[in-house]
């Protein structure tokens, strides 16, 4: 945790400079090669970006949620692929261990995740279970000191790069819903663990997803997160509460970048004898975007502070993910519109961002799942 404003400002400023000077100039290369250059990955490691949220005792920076979202606002002002590489170590890949892991599990894995020596990924989704996560069918059957895992996980971010996988599997086949699910850490190279081919996505080139396949994969029983069966679904939901807030912050940063690009273009581009930024119909798009970004930013900061104050922010995290990701989609659409024909060609970053940000309304819970969580919590709270 950064306890003083001066150090926090230094961190946010150095992130902002790194994004501007190193990442933005590399965006086209990443989009064309589908790879983040190795020297940039090394610099990200040296800056401590893989361990932003990992507690200091395990070698990370231990940022609070508020500090994390302030950092995320900056990191998101460039291609989401860069954020995605560090995102699983700071978020869904490591949080299961941080929130519910045993001391030994934390000591074993977290320092390597904080340094970026290991990449973590989070494997919940399956071919037959996406939004209905509790219906997952991957099984983990106890056999002596091991569990034998069988099943397939789908669209797993950073799976091709990962050294460890947080996976949710059913340890009790008699319980069809969430209570039969447990969370495990599975290491790369474990016999029976293999990967599918890398998915060809609409956007986010440089961020890789693929299937993770388990065929009689024997995992030590010591690798069950927290040491207890049957609580893996709750671990996953707690991880997602935090992850959704983080993604909402990313939506704010990405929208700010697109609006900056659109504003600059509108001030340079002349039609009917004057910059198009002087036209009120263009101004309306700029102003609506500014107002919506401000609203999302304020929501995210408020929810982050509440989480730091140990409040249950399941509802607020879903509100933030819902509003910020939809807002980001609207800003992307307006930014393309302001660019006109230029917004439809790849010479301008906005064409790429338009495709990249489409994912924000889908992953870590679709907009419709956020609506469902919010409304369910409202009904539950009203009947208490
Ligand atoms: N924190 C802690 N516990 C939670 C929780 C949370 N945020 N949300 C749910 N739980 C608990 C519930 O309290 C319940 O516990 P009990 O059985 O002890 O009462 C249990 O988990 C099951 O919850 P619920 O009944 O709400 O589960 P459902 O199957 O009805 O659905 C949704 C839950 C739809 C919200 C869940 O499946 C979901 O988030 N789906 C989207 C998955 C997703 O985001 N996927 C993206 C891919 S991962 S990047």
Walk me through this protein's architecture.
The chain is α+β, with helices and mostly antiparallel strands and 384 residues long. It has 11 helices and 9 strands. The protein has helices spanning 5-33, 38-46, 65-75, 80-90, 92-100, 103-115, 232-268, 280-308, 314-339, 349-356, 367-382, and strands at 120-123, 139-143, 146-157, 164-170, 181-187, 193-195, 209-220, 270-271, 274-275. Strands 2-3-7-6 form a 4-stranded antiparallel beta sheet, with no helix packed on it. A 3-stranded mixed beta sheet has the order 1-4-5. A two-stranded antiparallel sheet has the order 8-9. α4 (80-90) runs parallel beside α5 (92-100) and α9 (314-339) runs antiparallel to α11 (367-382). It starts with a helix and ends with a helix. Bound molecules: coenzyme a persulfide. The site of coenzyme a persulfide (COS) has 22 residues, from α7 and α11.
Can I get a quick summary?
This is Acyl-CoA dehydrogenase. The protein is of the alpha+beta class and 384 residues long.
Provide key terms for this protein:
alpha+beta; 384 residues; Butyryl-CoA Dehydrogenase, subunit A, domain 2; branched-chain amino acid catabolism; 14% strand; 3 domains; binds coenzyme a persulfide; acyl-CoA dehydrogenase activity; Butyryl-Coa Dehydrogenase, subunit A, domain 1; globular; 52% helix
């Amino acid at each position: 945790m950064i306890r003083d404003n001066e150090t926090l400002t230094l961190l946010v400023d150095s992130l902002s400079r790194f994004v501007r000077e190193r990442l933005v100039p590399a965006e086209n290369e990443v989009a064309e090669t589908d790879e983040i250059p190795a020297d940039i990955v090394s610099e990200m490691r040296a800056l401590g970006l893989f361990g932003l949220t990992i507690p200091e005792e395990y070698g990370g920076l231990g940022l609070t949620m508020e500090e994390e979202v302030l950092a995320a606002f900056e990191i998101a002002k460039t291609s989401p692929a860069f954020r995605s590489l560090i995102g699983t170590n700071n978020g869904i890949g490591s949080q299961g261990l941080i929130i519910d892991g045993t001391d030994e599990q934390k000591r074993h894995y977290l320092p390597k995740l904080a340094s970026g020596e290991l990449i973590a990924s989070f494997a919940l989704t399956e071919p037959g279970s996406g939004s209905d996560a509790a219906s997952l069918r991957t099984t983990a059957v106890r056999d002596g000191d091991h569990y034998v895992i069988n099943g397939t996980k789908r669209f797993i971010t950073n799976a091709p790069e990962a050294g460890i996988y947080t996976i949710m599997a059913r340890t009790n086949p008699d319980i069809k819903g969430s209570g039969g699910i447990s969370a495990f850490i599975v290491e790369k190279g474990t016999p029976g663990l293999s990967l599918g081919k890398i998915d060809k996505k609409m956007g986010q080139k440089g961020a890789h997803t693929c299937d993770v396949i388990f065929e009689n994969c024997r995992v030590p029983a010591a690798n069950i997160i927290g040491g207890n069966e049957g609580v893996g679904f709750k671990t996953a939901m707690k991880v997602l509460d935090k992850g959704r807030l983080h993604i909402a912050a990313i939506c704010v940063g990405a929208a700010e970048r697109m609006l900056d690009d659109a504003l600059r273009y509108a001030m340079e581009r002349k039609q009917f004898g004057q910059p198009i930024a002087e036209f009120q119909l263009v101004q309306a798009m700029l102003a609506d975007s500014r107002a919506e970004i401000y609203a999302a930013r304020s929501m995210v900061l408020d929810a982050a502070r509440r989480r730091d104050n140990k409040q249950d922010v399941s509802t607020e995290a879903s509100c933030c993910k819902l509003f910020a990701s939809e807002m980001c989609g609207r800003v992307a659409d307006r930014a393309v519109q302001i660019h006109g024909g230029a917004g439809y060609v790849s010479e301008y970053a906005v064409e790429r961002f338009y495709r990249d940000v489409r994912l924000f309304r889908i992953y870590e819970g679709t907009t419709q799942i956020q609506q469902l969580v919010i409304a369910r919590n409202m009904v539950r709270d009203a009947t208490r």
